Amino acid sequence: MAGPAEEHGDQARVRHLLPRLPRDPARPLPGGASDRELADLAIRLGTDLPEELAAWLRTCEGAAIGPGGLFGHRPDTDFLDMAARAAEYPGWRQLGWLPVAGDGFGNFYMLLIQGSLAGHVAFVEAISEPNEITYVAASNLWSFLRFLFEKELGAKGWPVDPTVVLAADPGLAHVPANPLPWTR
Prior knowledge:
The chain is an alpha+beta fold. The chain has helices spanning 9-17, 35-45, 51-59, 82-87, 91-95, 141-152, 162-168; strands spanning 97-102, 108-112, 121-124, 135-138. A four-stranded antiparallel beta sheet has the order 1-2-3-4. α1 runs parallel beside α6. The chain is globular and about 40 Å long. 34% of the residues are buried.
């Protein structure tokens, strides 16, 4: 894991915000996944974990926080287990999508691990179009987590205000307009 001096700005912000997020007091914030647990998750997903995802999961292995939970190595809790969530929609594996969070309404945020948008996080309306990107939510996982956590704590603008979003995540300026939320 990167030390504080080596962390990306969003990484440090996410680690600062994580313990402040509302959660059920009966469910303590879990620690990070071990290397063994990450290897197990990769096997169950049938793919290597991108380094950015592995770094996040070393911080938090999955938790019932945010609007629909954060997914990770949680074989003890299916609704938080990334591999169990991915198995619900077999097409996601072929598309190179890893579910990283839910929206609380049966839809998902996906880390895209292949194709021209690899590394980005996209929102997928699984209820109606489970194999189509609805919009790109962030240019990388740490920016997505920062946006999600800040929104949970009351910030406005993400994902629909281009001024707010592009100022915080300029990497989205390189995404074609079609899959951006403010063009919908």
